[in-house]
């Protein structure tokens, strides 16, 4: 919410999505957000791919989406319990597809042009700092995604 308030004068009037932890988006909402966006930001717990159906994602065509930012891979006791319970019914291969590299490949195959994603588990505070750096450099300063990722690596 702080990021939205800070950058409201730029592009945020055109932003649409779901904020907060009141409810989990439905599969239809995930699909609508992904197919109707030029950029998509996921800022949440666990793995992004644990929130959407794989068979629906691979059937999607998302050529209008120029950038996907996945600030995921944050673990809490509750999120770990949820992911453990949902993972019981998933095969080893299915769980493997939820890893960061495989997720990026799947998104790329659906038409997404660029993907910025965590590679390993992190904390909420570290992801908040990443989101601030991304927002400032992409929205306020106007740097390219490559320049911004280079800054994140430092």
Q: Which features would summarize this protein structure in a list?
A:
alpha/beta; globular; CFAP46; CFA46 protein
Number of helices: 8
Q: Whole-number average pLDDT?
A: 87
**Largest pleated sheet:** 3 strands, parallel
Tell me the domain tally: 1
Sequence stretches where pLDDT stays below 50 over 5 or more residues: none
Helix content: 40-55%
| Radius of gyration from CA coordinates | 15 Å
Residues in β-strands, percent = 5-15%
What's the total number of strands? 3
Secondary-structure element order, as H and E? Answer: HHEHEHHHEHH
Structural class: alpha/beta
From the spread of the alpha carbons, the general shape counts as globular
What does this structure look like?
By secondary structure, this protein is α/β, with parallel strands linked by helices. It has one domain. The protein has eight helices and three strands. A three-stranded parallel beta sheet has the order 1-2-3, with helices on both faces. α7 packs antiparallel against α8. The radius of gyration is 15 Å and the shape is globular. The mean pLDDT is 87.
